[in-house]
Amino acid sequence: MPLAFLLAPALGLSFLESLKGSLLAAGGVALAGGLYWAFRPAPEEDEEPVAMGYGDVKLLGALGAWLGPYAFLALFLGVFAGALLGLLLGQRKLPFGPYLALGGVVAFFYGEAIWGAYLRFLGV
Fold this sequence. Notes:
By secondary structure, this protein is mostly helical. It has helices at 2-11, 15-38, 55-67, 71-89, 97-122. The protein contains five helices and no strands.
């Protein structure tokens, strides 16, 4: 966050604009990561422990900071891509990180267009 304040004058932003962007990014991290952590499945006793930890939560938190509200679009696209490939390959367990990253890239480049098309589809 201090880097944003240092770079704000060079980017032509005012102090309040950079503060607003920093707070939105922090809120995106907290909301995206917190919701993903809150709705995690309860571990079963006979299940193997998770080897990598909560890397998906950290990735979604970073996407929330970078994309803002479009992080939910990235999450949806990642779930959709992972489920589709899991069904096509017939596998039950797939790593989620690559599909979440793919959803983040698609949301970064096409998020506004996808969201606009969705709202036009709904008639809003």
